[in-house]
Every structure is written in C-alpha cells, then in structure tokens.
Design goal:
This protein is α+β, with helices and mostly antiparallel strands. It has six helices and six strands, in the order E-E-H-E-H-E-H-H-E-E-H-H. It is elongated, with a radius of gyration of 29 Å.
C-alpha cells in the first residue's frame, strides 16, 4: 500500500511504503509452547541453521523514506533515499525462537516505548539499496542474537575428548594428593613415637 503525506513546511509529496501482513498478527507463537531449555536451544539452533533473508517476510515490516543527510550534493537535498524500517517486536517474536528475544530487545535498534525495531540506512543513493541495507542489518541483528544466546552443539568426538581430559585431570590430582600425603607422613616420623 502506498501512502502519501504532505507537510505544511514542505509542499512535496513523499511516498511512504507501508505493508503489513495480518497472517502473523493473530495466533500464538509456535515457540511459546515449548518446555525445557534444552529443547528450546535445539529448536533455536535448527531455526538459525535454516535462517536466510527470506525467513523474515518483507511484508511484516513498515518501510518509509525520507531525505538523507550528510554529503551527496543535490541528490541528498532533493531525493527521499534514506530508508527507515520498522518491525513490531510482537510480530517478529512470533517467528523468532524465544532464546533470541532478550538479545533482540537489548539491541540499539529497539525502541522500548513503541515496541518496534527501528533500523535506518542512508549509505546508498538509491532507495532500493537502502531498503536492502536495512534488511541486511535486521538479518545481522538476528544472527548476532543467535550467536550470543544459543549454545553450540557438542559433537560426540568433542564430548569423548572432554571426558578423557577430565579423567586424566582427576588422576593427576589424585597422584599429587598421594605424593603430598607421603611427604607429610615422612615428616611425622615413625608411627609409634608420640610426643
């Protein structure tokens, strides 16, 4: 849907592209029914493996354009090339596993009062390039949240190596204790003599 708005101070029409999918607004999150942190971690791990740019639908976001700032000459002054992406966290969290929610809320893009992620890009001269940059930032935010909050899976070889290292460490500790005990018993002298 294209919305046009005019300002009293600016007599130009600025297109604001807004599309909202109602398919994700209603109904509980499939991740909210999961019990147990190990199960949540496993599902989040699988979700992150399958995550790509198409996982978060573009129609879930509101995109608006405004004038950019900084160097760029007439293009910056005349063209609305800066893209602002707004994503409702309630809609986004229906798609994203729950272990990632806290890190997404802690991101600098999160606006606490509105409950939206607000991501801006004005590095490109074209609107489409800035929109793509916004979605790339959103994808990177979700991947960073996944790296911070989802534990890696231990391979059987790694688990076996850890088990062997623990066993070797325990044996070395017991040998050191026995050596120390022997040293102390030599200092005490014969067992029959008392003070």
């Amino acid at each position: 849907m294209i919305r046009t708005s005019t300002s009293r101070f600016q007599k130009i029409l600025r297109p604001v592209y807004v599309s909202k999918s109602h398919a994700f607004v209603s109904g509980p999150s499939p991740f909210s029914q999961i019990a147990g942190s190990d199960r949540e971690q496993a599902i989040a791990r699988k979700w992150l493996q399958d995550f790509n740019t198409d996982t978060i639908p573009r129609n879930l976001c509101e995109i608006s354009f405004s004038r950019s700032s900084g160097p760029g000459g007439q293009n910056v002054n005349k063209v609305n090339s800066k893209a602002t992406l707004r994503v409702s966290t309630s809609d986004l969290f229906r798609l994203v596993p729950s272990p990632l929610h806290a890190d997404i809320r802690a991101s600098p893009y999160y606006a606490e009062r509105s409950g939206f992620l607000v991501i801006q890009a004005d590095s490109n001269r074209k609107q489409t390039g800035n929109v793509d940059a916004c979605f790339t930032k959103l994808q990177n935010l979700i991947l960073a949240a996944g790296r911070n909050s989802v534990e890696g899976e231990t391979s059987p070889e790694q688990a076996d190596k850890v088990r062997r290292l623990r066993k070797a460490d325990n044996e070395a500790r017991l040998r050191a204790k026995k050596r120390h005990s022997g040293k102390k018993s030599v200092r005490r002298g014969p067992s029959g003599s008392g003070l």
